[in-house]
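Researcher: Please generate the 3D structure of the following complex. Treat every line as part of one assembly.
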Amino acid sequence: EPEVTQTPSHQVTQMGQEVILRCVPISNHLYFYWYRQILGQKVEFLVSFYNNEISEKSEIFDDQFSVERPDGSNFTLKIRSTKLEDSAMYFCARQGENTGELFFGEGSRLTVL
Amino acid sequence: ILNVEQSPQSLHVQEGDSTNFTCSFPSSNFYALHWYRWETAKSPEALFVMTLNGDEKKKGRISATLNTKEGYSYLYIKGSQPEDSATYLCAVQSTGNKLVFGAGTILRVKS
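Model: Done. Output below.
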């Protein structure tokens, strides 16, 4: 099954700036996820998005974060005012329909200075 | 809070050696266990998804078992090859669809 495409691959930003990370599925799927890995830590769940609505979110996913699928294709994660601790690799993933496995994008590395 | 533990943290083996890793998790509210292989500069790639106690799955030289009653899963690699070098992630799904990941086991296979 095809994977998802993420852009940008790497973004460097100043603290307090807004960042938008994009995820483009190759085919039309309903269930998407954002995960992140801070360097040296575990991969952690941020949010799941089903049928154009948030279905579940973690404690990390506070008011600074938002997700949307503005055109029915691109799936975006927005961080309104970045903090140093937001520096991480952010992964978009879609769920396989048969087995439930996740198909990850190649990740967007965010560096907040 | 669901906590998934993996051991060992890292492993260095010689080409041809067989090896195994462990994933431990709380047995309550269990729904599924996932194993992923994560090569450097690539995205995590699913190996197995298991749901039933006693499940055994195999893909080539890699196999996995699941014990939901005692809360553990083993991943086995038979005859390790240099291309098996990667981080192996275990993740548990309980309520909802989110996965809770372990810290991973880093495998390095020397030729």
